[in-house]
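Q: Joint fold for the lines below.
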Amino acid sequence: MSEKLEFYKQVKKVFRLLLLLFSLFLITGSVLVYYMVNPAFFSLNEAAEVYIVVEELDSDRIENGIHISTGFIDADGLMTVVRNCTGCHSSKLVIQNRMDAIGWNETIKWMQETQNLADLGKNQETIVNYLVTNYPPIKKGRRTMLTNIDWYELNE
Amino acid sequence: MKRRSFVKKATLTSFATLIGTEIIFGSNLLDGYVPLALQDPDPFKMFNKHKEMIMLNDKPWNIEAQAHLLDDKITPNSKMFVRNNGLVPEDIDAKNWVLKIDGESVTKEKIYSLSELKSNFKQYTYQLTIECGGNGRSEFNPPAKGTQWKVGAVHCASWTGVRLRDVLEDVGIKNDAVYIGYHATDTHLSYDPKKEPISRGCPMSKALQDETILAFQMNDEDIPLVHGYPLRLIAGGWPASVSGKWVNRISIRNKIHDSDKMMGDSYRVPCKPVSPGEKVKDEDMCIIESMPVKSLITYPKSGAVLNKGKTLSIRGHAWAGELEVEKMEYSIDFGSTWKTCEVEKPTNRLAWQHFSATVDFPDSGYYEVWARATDTNGTKQTMLVPGWNQKGYLNNACHRIAVKVK
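A: Joint structure:
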């Protein structure tokens, strides 16, 4: 009887040991798979998470007179322009265009007629003033000089 | 945030695999496809573009080359400009892609799968010059509206596909057909599903040319997504906007195609010359057809400094819309005198032509090399920016590079 009990105890011991080993194996395996898919999770500084939060908090950041997330000049009407003019298209499209008030008002009308832009109400004047003041047309004449030439030695 | 949740979903899927539970989204997530919106937003990596390409706009994507990047005889994808009016379509299923031919002037509407197009019609490969109508817009004064392209919105790649003419003959076209208009699967910037970012076309005479093709390959590979995968209409020599990307429908119209981008000042110029900044009535605007004669010096890059007594080899490409380039010249004295370049015949009609010359400089100093092409009608490129138009189309002023001799 005691021999049988002893045997039973030993089997139980082996079973527990195997269970422990298997659990350890499962945990290690899971950790390794997770590490494979998302290695950043195990890096101590959690840079990715902090980065995203910073970006969201600092979307209005201004450095040296430039609104960082759009590249717009910081001046009266900036945030009205950001809110109304960067939903559909990039701020780059605004910055590279140069028009007088008539031209900008016509462009807004065109966007309303063909591109689903809503009525801007009082904001239109703020927006047009901002654009005309900060991005006025540059007189280029019939052809400009070659500028920004990157000189280099040519050895053939 | 999207990126993170994607990573988490993938992680969960892996866990599901481990414990043997049925995977619901696994097949979508594990086949290596990452939706465009979740990809690294570095456009140079995303579109495989050369690092010296210039990104003019990121919503929608507009990227141009620089003259020296276009030195290859056949432009590789990495150096091809990108011009989009809307958002690049996602989740393209080429296996189930269909092209529908409809419109007032078809005898009966017909639908083709991509494999039917490939197997039912003879395939052709052509090198075709495609230039944005607004290439060179940045030079106009008063400034012209739109993306401010410099010189790099042009390419000449090798396109493989079937002739649109063969397909239209198979469909059956009525005698009153005037124009074709394409439709595509890209998304309008406002996400309004009823709006098309761009739908344009060309008269039947252009649609039925040998070189007007429905292409499924570019430079012997599937067309890259941003250039129109899986099917693109190619109409070389005309504004690039006629070569519609992601095409899934072509309408045969009994009148000039009347979409937004065929009207107003979109791809239209004053029929008669106007003074810079002048208002032009809608009825006095004409649709751009063939692009004008033009050329680019692609070697050397502007800014070369060489020693006195050295000769300089220059080379580049010239093209002339529907026509051919007959003569190619260069000037090193601001247009006072011109010397002739060697210019090759085009590989096929509407392909750009390669030119070269050996330049001697008489003394040390600052020089500009100007290049000027002449087409088969005897029309030359201008030296100053040509006729002003509100949207700044058709600037074919001669290309200039700076050279210093010391």
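Q: Anything notable?
A: Residues 2-51 of chain A form one domain. Chain A has six helices and three strands.
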